[in-house]
Amino acid sequence: MEFRQLKTFVTAAQMESFSRAAQEMGYSQSAVTVQIRLLEEELGVKLFDRLGKRISLTAQGRRFLKQSLQILKEVNQAKETAAQEGEMDNPLHIGTLESLCSVKLPGVLSYFRTHHPKVSIKITTATPARLYEMLDQNLLDLIYLLDRPRFNPEWEKVMEKREPIVFVTPPDWWGERPVKVKMEELTEEPFFLTEKNENYRRELDAFLEARNLQLTPAVEISNTDFIIRQLKESGGISCLPFFAVEESLRKGELLVLDVEGMKMEMVQQIFYHKSKWKTREMGELIRQVRGNMEENPRKRG
Fold first, then answer.
1. What is the C-alpha separation between 189 and 235, in angstroms, rounded?
2. How far is it, in rounded angstroms, from Cα 254 to Cα 256?
3. Contact 143, 252 (CB under 8 A)
4. What are the pLDDT digits (tens) for 70-116?
5. For site-directed labelling of 175, which of 29, 78, 164, 275 has its Cα 20 to 30 A away?
6. How far is Cα 67 from Cα 295, in angstroms, rounded to an integer?
């Protein structure tokens, strides 16, 4: 049994596809198929059921997956221990949201470029649902996201920070109107919002539904930076995480509307999969994100 066969088996199991596993590992699909067949012959068991182009683990395959993950984790731990005194050079693949990427990660990346230049960092932005899926498929080292508090027995949560969600608008567009308002007074205003069913937009829709209210957004887009620029340029209202608008609030470019009965919070969280050995590089990134939060205590608008 070869180490590469275990890695191929785990990748195929996590991605539920020989073709996607081949693409991820840089192999041909036939090479993946051969490696799995040889592994099954050596073990004397069938690891996958093949249903056309789809594959699924057999009962024996599920048991072997747990053992394989533990073996790979211990091998990675041994490699990490052997290189403990050396310079950090393991690559990092981070999954996150666009808003967190643009606001929270630039300082962390700058730190790595200065202190650990050999660490190659790849960032993938996606929805929370896709990030969770990629974490389970072992496509990411860790995920950093904003969502409801999440728990999964297969994940290790290493950071949790509550984040208020606020209504904001440009002061020159809002004019002399009172900043303390009822939601009923806002439904006809132009709203710039993230797309439906995405984290804090989902919370806003639940808030509206509980009050039998509805609004039609002027624009829906996942890019938070674009929303903030549009607010400043053309006026309107949005519902965004405080961290995303904190600088604009400090500069007086936006103000927070005090909407009656509206108190929404989400949680900044970092996870990695328990089957993955936490490398020094992962630990350092986690430490830097935590450190940035401690150095910049929350100022609520």
1. 10
2. 7
3. no
4. 888 777 777 666 666 678 888 999 999 988 999 999 999 999 999 99
5. 164
6. 42
